[in-house]
Amino acid sequence: EAGVTQSPTHLIKTRGQQATLRCSPISGHTSVYWYQQALGLGLQFLLWYDEGEERNRGNFPPRFSGRQFPNYSSELNVNALELEDSALYLCASSLGTEQFFGPGTRLTVL
Amino acid sequence: AQKITQTQPGMFVQEKEAVTLDCTYDTSDQSYGLFWYKQPSSGEMIFLIYQGSYDEQNATEGRYSLNFQKARKSANLVISASQLGDSAMYFCAMRDDYKLSFGAGTTVTVRA
Asked: How far away is chain A from the Cα of B95, in angstroms, using its nearest Cα?
């Protein structure tokens, strides 16, 4: 069974640009979670999607947004990139209790 | 709000020995779940073990076991017979309603 996949693996952008990160959950999982792991800040919850709807979001500005598609894959968009957005962005999928993570997208903002 | 505390920033362990990683938590909920994840240098978070607050037995998964002491609000991870491939960052996490709240992590380095 394929695990959670994320693309791209690495992404380099400059300040002010937009970044789009993609996530495909484990087959059959309907919930997708996004987390940010910035240096020195640990893992922070960003967004939760379930059955195509945004269910909750963490303490992040509105320029962090996303969506979930009918096949349960998800997209995270970060607008007006700032230097401090540089981080590893992890996606996780879940059907119940455990959350299974993908390999992450490492975003670097120059 | 729930809080996870991992007080050991880094640990060294000799190959084939056991290592215990500390985790304490704070919650007012009666029902909760505790998780341990491993994060190698590649970045992927690998699920290791889960303990439910109502589980009477300590969770065990292969070389991983969770020493759950509910009254002390601790959920320590024990890795037995350490291998070089166990070198990684280890995170304790608690399910906070819909999301996971993570501790700061402990870096484990296994020495040959």
From this structure: 8
- Bridge partners, B33 (sequence order): B52
Residue with tokens 């509910």: B70
**Burial environment of residue A44 by CB neighbours within 10 A (0 to 12, 13 to 18, 19 or more):** middle
Asked if A104 has any chain B CB less than 8 Å from its own CB, the reply is yes
Helix, coil or strand: residue B84: helix
> DSSP assignment, residue A85?
G
- Tell me whether residues A97 and B104 touch, CB distance under 8 A: no
Per-residue pLDDT tens digits for B17-32: 999 999 999 998 888 9
Q: Tell me whether residues A104 and B44 touch, CB distance under 8 A.
A: yes
Which residue in chain B is spatially nearest to A43 when comparing CA positions? B102
3-state secondary structure A49-79: EECCEEEEECCCCCCEEEEECCCCCEEEEEC
From residue B37, give the alpha-carbon distance in Å to each of A76, A84, B73, B88, B103: 23, 25, 18, 10, 11
Task: Give the minimum alpha-carbon distance from B22 to chain A in angstroms, rounded to a whole number.
Answer: 17
In the structure, what pLDDT confidence band is assigned to residue B6 with cuts at 50, 70 and 90? Answer: very high
A32 in Cβ contact with A91 (< 8 Å): yes
Closest residue on chain A to B95 (Cα): A97
Bond before A70 cis per omega within 30 degrees: no
